[in-house]
Each structure stands twice: as structure tokens, then as C-alpha cells.
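It would be a great kindness if you could assist me with a short task in structural biology. A protein sequence and the C-alpha cells that stand for its backbone fold form the material at issue. I should value your view on which stretches of the chain appear to form regular backbone elements. The record follows directly beneath this note.
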Amino acid sequence: MPETQPPSTKAKREYTQLLRLHEQLLAEFLRARDELLAPGTESLVKEIKGRTGSAPDLTEIKTAVEESIRALKLSQSHIQSAVSTDADSSFEIEGIANMPAYLQRFLSERAQEPGFSYEVIQDPVRGWIVAWKEYTNRGTVRGYGQFCERPYAWLDD
């Protein structure tokens, strides 16, 4: 059965998926940059130079990774400005004024979808918890989960 989402909602969901991809790529590029700048890499280059007389030049690679990080961040900001609208910032749950932006954004993206249900509770340790379920047209569960404001807070105790 074809989806019956309005085009703006579908586009918003696709932009959000693209943002998640950007975040994953950014994490990989940052990890690569850290590896290139790590002391272990420097000592490896020095060891190679000591044995062979010539050192591998990693300057171009470091520059390319830095440029990729900048380009990715620029693209990410363009996508975020396309996704963020006044409707997102005005989404509120009755009685909850201080919910973190990422939990509000998650709910605002999905709350109007048919078959989406959620419950918000407050835990003294983990903060706001959003428990959600998404149902198919036939009434079966398509997906479920929960997000916490501070998911690892219990580790500090």
C-alpha cells in the first residue's frame, strides 16, 4: 500500500535520515583525523624514515580529511536549516516545558504520523524518557524503543 504522507513530512524524514548519515560520516572523518594526528602515527612515520631514509608524506591526506570535515559540517548546517521550522520549535507536550531539544525534535517529526504512539515519563536519575511504538496499517508493531535524556546517568552512582 503506498504511503499517504504529505510531501513535506516525507521530505523532512528524508532530510533527517540524511542528517544521521552526515553524523556517521563526521564521526568516521574525526576518527581518521585523530588517527593521523596521533603520537603513534608520528612515531611510525619516524621509524619508517629511520629505516628507509624517506618518510611517507601524510600532509595531503590530513588536508583532505580536514576539508572533508569542513564540507560535511557545511552541508549539515544547510540541511539542518532546511529541516528546522517554526513548527518543530513550537512542539510541546502538555505539562513538559523543559524537554531537551533532541527529544522534542524526535516527537515533532513522528507525532503526527499515523500509527505512532508515545508516552513520556520522568525518571529521577535518567531524566525524561520517551517510550514509543509505531504500528502498521494492520495493527502490528513496526518498531518500538525508548530515548532517555541522560541514558548513562545510572553509571555515575
User: Anything to note?
Assistant: The longest helix spans residues 7-37. The mean pLDDT is 82. The two ends are 49 Å apart (CA to CA). The chain has five helices and three strands.
